[in-house]
Amino acid sequence: MSESFQEPVVLSNTYWTDEELTSAIRAYLDMLRAELNGEAYSKAEINRQLRAGALATRTKGSIEFRMQNISAALYELKMPWIAGYLPAKNIGSAVKEKMIELLRANGVEFLEPYVPTSDHEELACKVTSLRKQALAARPLGSFQPAMVSKIATSYVRDPAVKAWVLQIAGGTCEGCDTAAPFVALDGLPYLEVHHVMPLSSHGSDTTTNAVALCPNCHRRCHSSIDREEFKLSLYQKIPRLIVEVPGMD
Ligand SMILES: [Zn+2]
Ligand SMILES: [Zn+2]
Q: Which ligand is closest to the CA of 177, given by its number?
């Protein structure tokens, strides 16, 4: 039978039930998942399948429009959306909220790692998660990343402690005993000073808790899977250091 007989035009503007919206959302998320995984899919075919099933009373165009509503909701959530469904403009806030509610009820969480963040730890977690699942396509990124201002707290540091530790190191990393990797802008060998018991754990800002490290060894102290063993090796290797007990907040 021909489509035009099956689809009275009036139906395309009637209120969509939650069940209908849910069918569209599930189909949309399946397509988006395929797109992000680099798998092929056909929008036209999915649209046909929806009209042959859950969305039998809807037109091709009205389903396409709902798909653009879903893109608009995802855009609002700062999540990726299907490039072929440009976010609908002028979508009412009630529709958008309903879409967001149904997206959340239908597994939109898998897009969470793609949401931009200004939080360093959250960014690191998201990057790890995306690296482990491997990105299929080069992301667009943002030509004008948003800025946020934060209230920062920092410790008041003693310049003489830092200078003395660097002076004692004499341009050689106290972790791996190799020469500083380059000369810094100030004309002096570049090493970084690390507090073995972090200041944030109430470590002291003294020469018995600070070491001069090359950038690799410094990163190792903070980011390595063996950072605890590496810290112990510093305590063993550098007689000046005194083990401190982490304080409580
Ligand atoms: Zn080193
Ligand atoms: Zn450090």
A: 1
Residues 97, 183, single domain; the answer is no
What is the CA(55)–ligand 1 centre distance, in A?
Answer: 63
Within a domain: residue 124?
no
CA distances from 93 to 62, 69, 100, 148, 242 (A): 19, 11, 10, 25, 60
Q: Which ligand is nearest to the CA of 224?
A: 2
pLDDT at 112: 96
Spatial distance between the Cα atoms of 118 and 150, rounded to a whole number of angstroms: 10
Q: Which residue range(s) make up the domain with 68?
A: 3-114
Structural domain count, the chain: 2
Give pLDDT tens digits for 111-141.
Answer: 999 999 999 999 999 999 999 988 988 888 8
Contact, 190 vs 183, CB < 8 A?
Answer: yes
In a domain, 122, yes or no: no
The residue among 58, 92, 114 that closes a domain is 114
What mean pLDDT is predicted for residues 65-78? 95
Which SS3 state, helix, strand or coil, does residue 156 take?
coil
Among residues 90, 114, 138, which one ends one of the domains?
114
Comparing 49 with 88, which gets the higher pLDDT? 49
What is the Å distance from ligand 1's center to 172 Cα?
8
